[in-house]
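Predict the 3D structure for this chain.
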Amino acid sequence: MPITYKVNADVTTDDFIDLYVTSTLGERRPINDYDCMQRMKEEADLTITAWDDNMLVGISRVLTDYCYVAYLSDLAVRESYQRQGIGRELIRQTQAALDPSCLIVLLAAPDAVDYYPHIGMTQHDSAWLLRPGDTIK
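Done. Predicted structure below.
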């Protein structure tokens, strides 16, 4: 059965967490904090999901104003579904859901650094973080 894609589909928090665990993105997300994961899912401005029948196999989770910039905060594909073009299609459909002038920004997971240039994204040499507990001096 072909993979289907949906914009802002209703996803249960349990399915959302399961996807993150099975994609390895869960290593860098608060998968053991159910309330936080639920808020992450619900407060996203845009989600594009990939489905194999009724199983969630991928997600693009975006925070955006839709016209100037979109932060693609999570791109996750189940490990067993990777290398099939699902991540690329999730990004393509994310881009299609935004204004054509909208910039997409993401921070790559360490294991995915080589993936993004491969699909045509440009690396930016500066990003700045203010981690929880850090203060502005």
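The chain has a mean pLDDT of 94.
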